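Hi, here's the filled form for the chain we discussed.

Project: internal
Contact: R.S.
Residues: 369
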Amino acid sequence: MYSKRILIDFRHIDKKNGFSTYLIMILKAIDSVDREFFLLVNENDFDFDEYIKTNKNVKFIKAKSKPFSFSQNYEIPLLIKRNKIDLYHAINYDIPLFMFLAPKCKLIATIHDLIPIVNKNIHKRSIIKNIYFEIMFRLCSFLSDRILTVSEYSKNDIVKYLKVNPNKVTAFHCSFRGKEIPEKTDFTLHKPLRVFFIGNNFEHKNILAGIEAAEILKNKNIGIVFNIAGQRTQYTDELENYIKEHNLEETVNISGKISEAAVDELFKTSDVFLFPSLAEGFGSPLLEAMNYGLPIVSSNKTVMPEVIGDAGILTEPHPENIAEKIEFIIHNPQVVSNLAQKGYERMQSFSQEKFNKNILSVYTEVSNG
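And the returned structure, exactly as it came back:
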């Protein structure tokens, strides 16, 4: 069962983004079994000494090539051949294209979502970038022996848009293990109401609709403070211009990327978590909000209903609809504790143990196939 040599691309581990979160889940999975794994890393990118202390069965293969570089297309297959690797797992669509240099090695690729090509009308990208994404996703789906993805919604997109056999795509949810904090007991709403969003400031996150909803409530003399955290982008400038032009400086606050302690404080002191995104592959902030006992008002698009279930209020992601749902919570505070309890129950479905079982079984199936 565990005789094959498996190499996993860990070059994103220090990027502090969705890829690194996914890799930490994989690290916990391989730590749960007594067998050897190989991790592909870049030199000096990360201090792996701590990982070696916790997992004696991990060995590292160092690559000079960075993710998305041309040189990785031949360097990684040559490293695979030299180290007699049986299975290589690329954790995104950025696969080495010259895998014919290592013909005996199987290839697994994780495609988290198809937002770059399915929702390209949302982003202000050049035609060249759109063509690049289209080509790379299609090459990835063609060259891979198995595609992993993080939701049934994303699997359906992959099958539909990339014309992939459904049997080639395996979908299972990411795990979630939030901070161990006491379950919330005081659900008294603040005045003004504190609404929170966290996520990179990209167009598809639809943050402007949330800001416009806050403006609608302000104009109805309903007190609200909307806090927005997450990595700044060019789109952030548009959001800040709107805030300034509409005199919303006291209603909306964009803090950019903040410390973990500051994120923790905002989750603890907010009344509602707002997630108006138009497209997600998974949406881990939703589980984070459940962990803090926050009622969720979310878009009903793409994967959100699959992740949230009945633990939140789903709505069409337009400003008027969002404002209506937030106002409903204000006038019906009894629903807050009910949604919080459903959230606590819901997040238990996303366990690390389930993730371990799923990914390790795929490794075994593909490497032995």
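Let me know if anything looks off before we file it.
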